[in-house]
Amino acid sequence: MPTPISDIHIARADPLPEPRLLRDELPASEVQAAGIAASRAATRNILRGLDDRLLVVVGPCSIHEPESALEYAARLREMAQRLGESLLLVMRVYFEKPRTRMGWKGLIYDPDLDGQGDIGEGLRHARRILLACAHLEVPAASEILDLVTPQYYAELLTWGAIGARTVESPLHRQMASALSAPVGFKNATNGSVAAAIDAIHVAAQPHRFPTISLEGRAMVITTTGNPDGHLVLRGASDGPNFDAASVRRATEALSQAGLPARLVIDCSHGNSGKDYARQPAVAADIAQQIGSGSAGICGVMIESHLVEGRQDITDGRKGLRYGQSVTDACIGWDATVEVLENLAAAVRQRRAASGFASIQNEIGL
After folding, report:
1. Which helix (H) or strand (E) holds 256?
2. Longest CA span, the chain
3. With left for phi above 0 and alpha for psi between -120 and 50, is residue 115 left, alpha or beta?
């Protein structure tokens, strides 16, 4: 018998459907595709200072039940119809969750919340939810964590994020260069803005790297680079960075790096001290900065669900409270409405006080 030297730690190997087969099984209609393209264009215009609205990426920390996710999307659509003159609302539809040690890794990896890990069915859930959001005309955002799974759903996203734990990863930076949607790069967990700025530059360049094709074959792709990378301030382990002084330092660093002085601020994570109830206060501070004329802030992120707080998974889906997060705690819907209304009022105040042309001049357009 030959000495075993490969697959020593592999317990099982389950096939996945080819990405194209899943896309053919759950296709986007032409109307849905046009809506996604339009929302991406609107996002780019905000990032580039051509649209003075505020980009707001808002929604559950993670998606674990399709029903409450789609109820949330329907409510967000109503808010978008009411506040669309001031805010471009994009729903957080996060299917993959980075874990510091262990824990539920997201709907794609464990759709039944029972540890069995039917990833093929998880990918189907992801596409169904994204297509339902597109049908509702609700743009969707997600963190791009895995290097393979985006082939199954990323064409349905309006906005993508590279998180604080992966922003320094060369593989994630080159992957971002291939993505069709604008991508936000979060500052590193230690607060380093430089790491995210480096990532923006790297992702904007052409790359050549191996991946899988839509037919599931290994191949090498050459990218043109993603011109719509931008900075997301998410705070750090030792404190927040949403205040005016931190925003000013970050926009100056962007300018010195030859990048537009525009950024998005995450109201959660390090900026809220991991206390979900502090998100409205963070958003209020950001709104005050916007209302006072800050042109550097072009977007906000908020973790929000139908029901505030969070809950533990103890027995799969059994006993879970409908519409409440199973990962990071979120603010509830009523608090979300108030935050969105305050942000919209701040945009109107900035628009009235400064004028769109002066905003463009301030950011160097």
Report:
1. helix 244-256
2. 80
3. left
CATH of the domain at 284: 3.20.20.70
Q: Hunting for tokens 């590193």 — which residue is that?
A: 188
- For residue range 106-140, list pLDDT tens digits in order: 999 999 998 888 999 999 999 999 999 999 999 99
Q: Tell the burial category of 10 from Cβ atoms under 10 Å away from its Cβ (0-12, 13-18, 19+).
A: exposed
DSSP bridge pairs for 208: 222
Q: Is residue 14 part of a domain?
A: no
**Do the domain assignments include residue 9?**
no
Tokens of 31: 């109307």
pTM tops 0.90, yes or no: yes
What is the Cα–Cα distance from 252 to 261, expressed in whole angstroms?
Answer: 7
Please name the helix (run of DSSP H) or strand (run of DSSP E) that holds residue 186, with its range, or none: strand 183-186
Q: Note the pLDDT tens digit of each residue in 21-37.
A: 999 999 999 999 999 99
* Residue 218 CA: distances (Å) to CA of 29, 153, 221, 287: 28, 18, 10, 47
Q: What contacts 24+ positions apart, CB below 8 Å, involve 19-24?
A: 19/151, 19/152, 19/212, 19/213, 19/214, 19/215, 19/216, 20/214, 20/215, 20/216, 22/123, 22/124, 22/127, 22/152, 23/127, 23/152, 23/155, 23/214
**Residues 6 or more apart from 135 whose CB is under 8 A from it?**
32
Supply 53's token pair. 């609205």
* Residue 293 lies inside a defined structural domain of this protein: yes
